[in-house]
Amino acid sequence: MGSGSVRKSAVHRASVSLLIVLIVPESGTDVKKTGTNPDNSNTTTPERSLRDYLVHGVVPANTDCTHAIYSHSKILVAALNGPVMGIAAAFLGNFDFIYAVPGAWLNVGFPFLGIAVEGGASVSFVNRMGIAKANEVLILNKKISASEMLECGFVNKIFPSKSTEEFHSAVHQHLKKELDGLVPASIFAIKTLIKAGLNDKNNFHAVNLRESYAQADRFSSGIPSERFRKIANREIRHKL
């Protein structure tokens, strides 16, 4: 919950001061780093059920962070310098532009862990990559490469493999060139209209709450905690 609050606050601060928010998701293949932390899901008392704990303790952090991202007024840009999994992957569907290196890939991991979708991905992935590919990524837990993300429209551009610093610099220079001569007020107005149109199709607040309560139900079943335990004890292995 603490890390979610930090991420949320950082996004809110950025809405005040920045035109572009450049976020590089944490790279790695640790399936435990998927967002909701099951290690704390057994903090219950006789007066408080596991579901109550999740709804009032864990879910608000993810719900609030998701809201901060999809309601952000400025242009959100993600730069993927490696693999991205879990809720970090789910958040990407809310970004305006996504850039990646050839070796980047995405895997949500949710059905393998027995949990529900987070970060608005149940709608944002469909909007960004189409229903067919979104079903493969979300329902079948398919790992999708940078080239596949580019092909389906999830990623805007792939940059040649470089060091992290060189990649950041290349993305920065690309954005400077693309934005040169454009009027910020016009950019924000256009984004607002695009988001309003998408919201008319699928209300973002409804999606966020629907996913959050579904996640609480999944964790209260006990299955996700058992899956994480088996992964930790090497009783089962992720496909990756």
Question: Keyphrases for this structure?
Answer:
3-stranded mixed sheet; 240 residues; alpha/beta; 4-stranded parallel sheet; 11 helices
Structure described in brief:
The chain is α/β, with parallel strands linked by helices and 240 residues long. It has 11 helices and 7 strands. The longest helix is centred in the N-terminal third of the chain and has 21 residues.
Helix-strand layout with pairing:
Layout: H1 2-17, E1 20-23, H2 50-70, E2 75-80, E3 84-85, H3 86-91, E4 97-100, E5 105-107, H4 110-113, H5 121-129, H6 131-138, E6 144-145, H7 146-152, E7 157-158, H8 164-179, H9 184-201, H10 204-220, H11 223-232
Parallel strand pairs: 1-2, 2-4, 3-5, 4-7
Antiparallel strand pairs: 5-6
Helix pairs in contact: 1-2, 2-10, 5-6
